[in-house]
Amino acid sequence: MEQHEHVIERYERAWILFGLAMITVFIILIGYMMLTMGNTNPVSAARIDATKVRTEGDFANPRVEQVGNEYVAYVQAFSFGYLPMEMKFKAGQKVTFYITSPDVQHGFKVENTNINVQVIPGEVAKVSYTFKKPGEYNLICNEYCGIGHANMVSKIVVEP
Amino acid sequence: MAVKTFPKIDVYAGAPEKKYTLFMLMLGFIALMVGTLFGPLQAFNYGGLDLYPFLKPVFQSYYQGLTIHGVLNAIIFTQLFGQAIMVYLPAKELGLRPNMTLAWVSFWMALIGLLIAALPLLGNAASVLYTFYPPLKAHWAFYVGAALFVLSSYVSIYLVLEMWSRWKKANPGKITPLATYMSVTFWLMWFLASLGLVVEALFLIAWSLGLVAGVDPLLMRTLFWYTGHPIVYFWLLPAYTLAYVTLPKLAGGKLVSDPLSRLVFLLFLLFSVPVGFHHQFADPGIAPYWKMIHTILTMMVAVPSLITAFTIAASLEVAGRANGGKGLLGWIGALPWNNPTVLAFLLGFLAFIPGGAGGIVNASFNLNQNIHNTVWIPGHFHLQVGTLVTMAAMGTAFWLIPHLTGKPLVARGMALASQWLWFLGMFIMTFALHWMGFLYAVPRRSHIAGSPIAMEAYRESSAWMVLNIVSGVILLIAAILFFYVIYATALQSRRDPDRVMSEVPFSEVISKPEGSSLALLTERIWFWFGIAVVLVVLAYGPVLFQMFTNMNPVPGQRLW
């Protein structure tokens, strides 16, 4: 019986060390990938009065602007749609989205990309991305925003 | 003719805590039953099949059903189960009786809170989902009822700490028995973790009553997830406790290591709370380095679960070999698979393994971008709370209800079938949801079956959608079998106290706490609680301070 206990305790220690090593490797990989593979995590660009989004400032006029070789898009995510209704970009050119909401929380997820933003009233989210493949991408609201939430699907067109 | 009267046996006369435990448990299962009946409707929705129009006069929308499903299953049932198990186990282990007056106070607070919150839920005045993100604004009664319900758990915290200190006084210098240790750390963790929800509730109640014009949605999200991730450990730890202190015995073996089991609960106390930002990786308004810190701390919470995987597997191996299992894997077949309680835990843990791996993905700052708010997420947590936590509760009910009432379990075959079907149904459903979310970006909590636009957008995932319908049917059958078994057991008139388990099946242990330096180290619970508080202050303090001093209130909306 003594022998049996001893063996289990040895395996136990090995397993805990293995677990810690695995976690450490994961953390290093996450950091490494974020530094080298393009970080698409949204950040805050500004705070804003949600009740004035529709009437004042950049978001009262939702649009895509071409600035040199890049795009800047000012997007309103509202119940239940996006403005501008359709966005067109050229493949290979960087797009910087500024997104906010005039009402409740929304999602801003572009399928087949790493763009996935929690749109929070009062916050302007900023995220940059370069579409490489031409085509039509679904733009999806993935945060419950009321009874019409499921209809809140739009299109992003990327031209070659 | 003389009327012959049988002497009525009062089974609770000598053990009033049994009655309290039974009431908490059964109230929890009633909540689970109502919530679970809406489950297949959600599954059918993700199969493109919309049954809500048929419920129209009573239930207004998918989102109302989803709110009921989430609130009852994830808040009401889980807390009531914790309040039943994590008070009863230490009471039995220490041989002490909790303060019964306060125990019933906690029961009535929970029941009245539940009823107050249920009215707006049933009236479609609170279809704000389980996360109730402002500025979607529910009826004030929803927030008041939920707050009263959560506060009932604070009475349970007191009950256990009071029993523990009574035992400590009577046994100076002794190491706290294992189940009690787990219960004490569990309740202290919950006390620390629930503060976010309590503060959020104060804001929401004032807002819904019109006392303040708006609330800051980012601050509310942050307070919600401050509690919202540790709450999953609040659900999980009663299942772990039962797996440590009862499962080895029920399977015919022994718990491998007592000191290591304590370490697991201590690590949960330390690392459960400062992790909530990993639900907010996609949020603007929180600096990336804070998100990275929470990534690292979240990864640390995987460690106690990895240790648990080892200890439970090793304890089961001891059981399998004691039952005559031979060879490398022969012990698995020798486990008592025909014991419905053991079966529930075995299948629950089996599903928990891929669920844990998925959890690592969710907690990884950058991988999360792919799956945030897609159906991957409900796929993930149905593998966790939907299998291990729920199955531990269902499996435990199979011995606990007979133990509490003196009534033997009826329809054992149905009990076994319910667990196999539940496991199968959850496995199929979560498999489909993971891939639908990951490959096709299908959003979570979306009434896609009622929207031709959505069905068109996600048509490529239709093969996976079919699996949701299949699983919904299987899970419905499993639920019917399970609830039949427990209600038929509890409501039968036959009492057979000799045939049911009279003692709680506490496991014996191989490596004992006495003489272990690790056990002595973990025993300094208040010291470790202080460390946990410091960790939370470091991981949340600066961000919360900034949010509280820069509030940006937004008025409420009712959009359902």
Automatic annotation (TrEMBL), chain A:
The record's EC number reads 7.1.1.9
Tell me which domain of life the UniProt entry assigns to the organism this sequence originates from.
Answer: Bacteria
User: What broad class describes the main subcellular location of this protein?
Assistant: other
Chain segments annotated as transmembrane? 14-35
Q: Which PROSITE patterns match?
A: COX2 (PS00078), COX2_CUA (PS50857)
One GO cellular component, as annotated:
membrane
Give the Cytochrome oxidase subunit II copper A binding domain ranges: 64-160
CDD domains, alphabetized: ba3_CcO_II_C
Q: Which SUPFAM superfamilies match?
A: Cupredoxins (SSF49503), Cytochrome c oxidase subunit II-like, transmembrane region (SSF81464)
Which compartments does it reside in?
Answer: Cell envelope; Membrane
Listed Pfam families = COX2, COX2-transmemb
Gene3D superfamilies from the UniProt entry = Cupredoxins - blue copper proteins, Rhodopsin 7-helix transmembrane proteins
Molecular function (Gene Ontology), one example: copper ion binding
- Keywords on record: Copper, Electron transport, Membrane, Metal-binding, Translocase, Transmembrane, Transmembrane helix, Transport
Give the matching PANTHER family: CYTOCHROME C OXIDASE SUBUNIT II (PTHR42838), NITROUS-OXIDE REDUCTASE (PTHR42838:SF2)
This chain's protein is named: cytochrome-c oxidase
Question: From which source organism is this entry?
Answer: Meiothermus hypogaeus NBRC 106114
Q: Which gene encodes it?
A: cbaB
